[in-house]
Amino acid sequence: MSFDVVILAAGKSTRFNGIKQLAEIEDTNMINFCINKFSQIDIDDIYVALGANSEKILPSLSLNCTPIMSENWHLGLGHTISDIIKKLSIKSNHLLLCLGDQVLIPQAHYQKLINESHTNRQKIIATLSQNKMMAPAIFPKSYFRELEKLFGDKGAGCLMRENAHNVICIECNHAKLDIDTQEEYFILKQKLKNNQMEQV
């Protein structure tokens, strides 16, 4: 089995009042912090979907990934996913979609998703948080065309719900916190400072 990772980081971060992808997290920035989670995981390629502020993000992007541009990022997450799937010549038979601002998700959770996918190769392996299916999630190749059809704000979560009979969920409470505002960013930094989070 083979896995490619797509980190979705194309949004403008309007509520954040700054370029969220470049916000400082420990000794790096938010997007590279997410990329580094996969350093010890057996995957094939890491792709980062960029859109807004790409010219400022690209120079600081880790060399361990391939940036992919989404021209339609401003139309919603669904369009971004569709753009990336169309552009990628995906050779792997599984795709792990994750969000670049779900910073608290531990490396161990990504490994659990991959392990479960090895056992259930034709299933969607999703994250469960607060009784809601969400990213990060692994999609087998049989769903790539459906991902390509997404549009607007219809993200991968819609595809999970439409195919709930074929989804296996793994719980991760950390998935509920994504960083949309400066207040949430402050909470994140306090947790890191006080060592109140799991190893990431």
Helix fraction, binned, reads 25-40%
Number of strands: 9
Strand content: 15-25%
Average residue pLDDT? 93
Question: Which stretches are low in confidence, meaning pLDDT under 50 for 5 or more residues running?
Answer: none
Strand order of the largest sheet: 5-4-1-6-8-7-9
CATH architecture: Alpha-Beta Complex
Q: What about the largest sheet?
A: 7 strands, mixed
So, the CATH homologous superfamily? Spore Coat Polysaccharide Biosynthesis Protein SpsA, Chain A
User: Quaternary state, please?
Assistant: single chain
CATH class: Alpha Beta
Order of helices and strands: EEEHEHEHEHEEHHEH
Supply the number of structural domains.
1
Q: Mind telling me the C-alpha Rg? A: 16 Å
Structural class: alpha/beta
The shape, in one word, is globular
For the termini, the CA-CA separation is 25 Å
Number of helices: 7
CATH fold-type name: Spore Coat Polysaccharide Biosynthesis Protein SpsA, Chain A
InterPro entries: MobA-like_NTP_Trfase, Nucleotide-diphossugar_trans
Keywords: Magnesium, Nucleotidyltransferase, Transferase
GO molecular function, one term: nucleotidyltransferase activity
Domain MobA-like NTP transferase: 5-163
Defining traits:
single chain, 200 residues, alpha/beta, Spore Coat Polysaccharide Biosynthesis Protein SpsA, Chain A, seven-stranded mixed β-sheet, two-stranded antiparallel sheet, 7 helices, MobA-like_NTP_Trfase
Write up what this structure looks like:
With 200 residues, this protein is α/β, with parallel strands linked by helices. It has one domain: Spore Coat Polysaccharide Biosynthesis Protein SpsA, Chain A (Alpha-Beta Complex). It is built from 7 helices and 9 strands, in the order E-E-E-H-E-H-E-H-E-H-E-E-H-H-E-H. It has helices at residues 30-36, 54-57, 77-87, 107-119, 144-148, 156-162, 182-193; strands spanning 3-8, 24-25, 28-29, 46-50, 66-69, 94-99, 124-129, 132-140, 167-171. The strands form 2 sheets. A 7-stranded mixed β-sheet has the order 5-4-1-6-8-7-9, sandwiched between helices. A hairpin with a 2-residue loop joins strand 7 (124-129) and strand 8. It is globular. The mean pLDDT is 93.
